[in-house]
Amino acid sequence: MQRICFLMEIVAGREAEYQRRHDEIWPELVAELQQAGVRNYTLFRRDTTVIAYAECHPDAATAFGRVGATEVNARWAAWFTDVLAEHTDQAGNLIEAQEVWHLD
């Protein structure tokens, strides 16, 4: 299991829409995340910055790779193009935060 934390930026003024869309998250997307090995997935927001945390089985690259290959994820990502200003670096990788310390 790998813990991952990554950052996203919401388009200024679109915070309420970002929240609304997550309030109505698609059950089929949740199912794909779970089947792919993503657990304890949590989003936090401070102004326009979203901090995401997830526990991935066996690791983040495998779990998110599985999700990324699904049709429902493609639709979800396309739906968010007007809400997210940034969620990957120029190479298409998640903008990760490095783990400094952990307490079980």
Automatic annotation (TrEMBL):
One Gene Ontology MF term: L-rhamnose mutarotase activity
Keywords of this entry: Isomerase
Pfam families: rhaM
Database matches in InterPro entries: Dimeric_a/b-barrel, Rham/fucose_mutarotase
Documented EC number(s): 5.1.3.32
PANTHER family: L-RHAMNOSE MUTAROTASE (PTHR34389:SF2)
Protein name: L-rhamnose mutarotase
Species the sequence originates in: Jatrophihabitans lederbergiae
